[in-house]
């Protein structure tokens, strides 16, 4: 296992263990001090625990080498894991939003304890660090599963901010004898639910695009095209396609080369083209090259 892959797995395990600990802390403090916002955040964190487990499992599968049943490798396992995380985030947003709206029709909750605020603040700091750390490792490894986990941590940062705000307003309302401040918690929760739902939609759309074999961005294709055109033997680029396959890219290129080249010379051109692309773009996992004959008089034109 490479050093980058080892760092990715370590980050995934840290996320899983952190979510387990935070779930226990939030639910325990929430029930002990009757904090509905912290209980809701704890249930949300339980969903994150499942998301982290799904991401970790998909990363382990994606690291397997190609086999007879999966000749292109198992890279899309991470995309499936990211889609699962997006679904869990969407369900969590509905859960948070529902309880936020329901709380608006109940008397404001002002009986709050400073320990609940401390628990929410610890979660906020912890999740912010996890987001920065996991996103950095995920981008370094090009891991869709790890980036999805990082976005999940970001959603938790939003939720923890709402929890801190709601609990803080509740404490302030009790101190100033202003019951209306107790509604700050559900209002903040509704806003967070919208932000989390937007994040889930963006993650889900990206996962679907990859599973549907959507082409990479035009800037990336143009970079590949420049490399291919710079090969002296390449007289024309007939077709160039590229798609993401989890944490790596598959490139499919069809070029025309002088018809008088021998099979060995054509093989050398193909190998040179493939090696050059993969050396300059570490995220490319495979390059498929097809050679067409080229004639100076244009007889090869379709």
Give a quick precis of the structure.
The chain is built from eight helices and three strands.
Account of the protein in words:
It is a single chain. The chain is mainly alpha-helical and 302 residues long. The protein is built from eight helices and three strands; from the N terminus they run αααααααββαβ. Strands 1-2-3 form a three-stranded mixed beta sheet, with helices on one face. Helix 1 packs antiparallel against helix 2, helix 2 runs antiparallel to helix 3 and helix 4 packs antiparallel against helix 5. It starts with a helix and ends in an 8-residue tail after the last strand.
Keywords:
302 residues, Alpha-lytic protease prodomain-like, Alpha-Beta Plaits, three-stranded mixed beta sheet, 68% helix, 10% strand
Strand order of the largest sheet: 1-2-3
Radius of gyration equals: 26 Å
Q: Give the overall shape.
A: elongated
Q: What CATH architecture of the largest domain do you see?
A: Up-down Bundle
Q: Quote the CATH topology of the largest domain.
A: Alpha-lytic protease prodomain-like
In percent, how much strand structure appears in the residues? 5-15%
Largest sheet: 3 strands, mixed
Structural class: mainly alpha
Give the proportion of residues in helices. Answer: 55-70%
Give a count of the beta strands, DSSP E runs of length 2 or more. Answer: 3
**Parts with pLDDT < 50 across at least 5 consecutive residues:** none
Instruction: Quote the average pLDDT.
Output: 81
| CATH class placement of the largest domain | Mainly Alpha
Draw up the topology in text.
Layout: H1 3-32, H2 36-62, H3 76-103, H4 114-141, H5 144-176, H6 184-211, H7 218-229, E1 236-244, E2 249-258, H8 263-280, E3 284-294
Parallel strand pairs: 2-3
Antiparallel strand pairs: 1-2
């Amino acid at each position: 296992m490479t050093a980058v892959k080892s760092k990715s797995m370590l980050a995934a395990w840290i996320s899983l263990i952190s979510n387990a600990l935070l779930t226990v802390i939030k639910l325990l403090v929430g029930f002990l001090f009757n904090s509905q916002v912290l209980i809701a955040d704890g249930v949300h964190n339980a969903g994150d625990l499942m998301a982290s487990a799904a991401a970790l499992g998909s990363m382990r599968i994606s690291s397997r080498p190609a086999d007879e049943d999966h000749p292109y490798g198992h890279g899309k396992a991470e995309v499936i894991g990211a889609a699962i995380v997006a679904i869990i985030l969407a369900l969590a947003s509905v859960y948070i939003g529902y309880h936020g709206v329901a709380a608006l029709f109940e008397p404001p909750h002002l009986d709050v304890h400073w320990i609940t605020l401390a628990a929410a603040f610890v979660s906020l700091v912890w999740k912010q660090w996890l987001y920065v750390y996991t996103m950095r490792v995920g981008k370094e490894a090009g891991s869709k599963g790890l980036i999805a986990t990082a976005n999940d941590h970001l959603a938790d940062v939003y939720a923890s901010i709402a929890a801190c705000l709601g609990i803080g307003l509740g404490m302030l309302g009790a101190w100033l004898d202003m019951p209306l401040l107790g509604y700050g918690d559900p209002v903040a929760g509704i806003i967070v639910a919208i932000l989390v739902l937007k994040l889930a939609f963006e993650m889900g759309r990206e996962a679907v695009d990859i599973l549907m074999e959507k082409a990479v961005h035009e800037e990336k294709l143009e970079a590949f095209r420049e490399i291919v055109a710079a090969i002296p033997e390449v007289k024309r680029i007939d077709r160039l396609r590229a798609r993401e396959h989890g944490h790596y890219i598959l490139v499919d290129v069809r070029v025309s080369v002088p018809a008088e080249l021998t099979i060995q010379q054509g093989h050398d051109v193909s190998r040179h083209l493939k090696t050059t692309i993969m050396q300059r773009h570490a995220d490319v996992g495979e390059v498929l090259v097809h050679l067409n004959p080229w004639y100076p008089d244009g007889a090869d034109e379709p």
